[in-house]
Amino acid sequence: MRTWPEEMIELGLPDPGTPGQSARKSVGDMRACDHGTHEESGSILPLTPDEWRDAVMSTVETPADRAAECEPPMREQVSAGPQLEGSYTSRMPRENGTESGDSDPSSRYPVDSVVNASRVLLMFREVSQLTVGQVATELGVARSTAHRLLTTLQSQGLLHQAAARQAYRPGPALVELGASVVGASDLRHRVRPLLERLNAETGETTHLLVLLGTEVLFVDGVEGRHAIRAAPRIGARELAHTSAAGKVLLASLPLDELRYRYPKNRLVGGTANAVTSRAALESELDATREQGYGINRSESETDLCAISVALRDPGRGHALGAISVSGPASRMDHRVEEIANQLLEVSAAFSD
Q1: If phi over 0 gives left and psi between -120 and 50 gives alpha, with beta otherwise, what is residue 20?
Q2: What's the chain's average pLDDT?
């Protein structure tokens, strides 16, 4: 003999009778949610115990079911950075019935403002400066939207505009970001044999350096063989205007970019031999460009002499970094021209 299912008893539903007996019961589907709305529908059906169980259990909801029905569509907010167009993405259903916010990263909808900002920065792979019109055309957006993107990137130091209505160039933060990657990139491996070659030829300490704002970062180095020698300074920073490598890298910048990095005429840092004004630095950089190499004559440290040349991108010609040879001034001063020629030869080989 079939018995009334225990699940129905737990739900407080009475036994409709014995099997074979036609019972007519009202099945109500009452649903409520936090918004205070109710939906009620009912029907009078002749049901067996098993049919009652299936019908009632199909209408029983869990708290999660009710929350999912009652809450408004979810929207994901981008928490970091300024709010731009597209800084929100909705969880939108797809053809397979799942949501865009599921666990598969490849299925998520991109944040339009982040995509556009990334595209702006990647445009520097082809050009050295950008205008509002170029960005608007490339992204297919209004000039006002392009202008907001550019000014937002500028506010974070990723772009630089020397003056109003002029083109935008890579900013110091973007340069520093690139330089931080350089230390672990192919450049370091490509330059390492050149540092070892110069070290063997000169007997002095050699370094690879990159420009970070108004400083240079020592990326790699090979220590000299002499008892008294310059110590390798991998990971250290030094003021660019007091450094041989800093001078050749600053000399590769446009004048407006140089003045953006040095907005004041007065310069501080270094020894008494270091330049103390932007005007003097600009004159020093003119000489650096003319001779093709930079010299540090005890400007960063007493009794330290260094000579440096830029390493240029073979395709585009811009400076990727600089290599230097350094040692005690008492030993290096009379070797400046000799070592400069060795550096220039290595730099030419790198750029070929």
Answers
A1: left
A2: 77
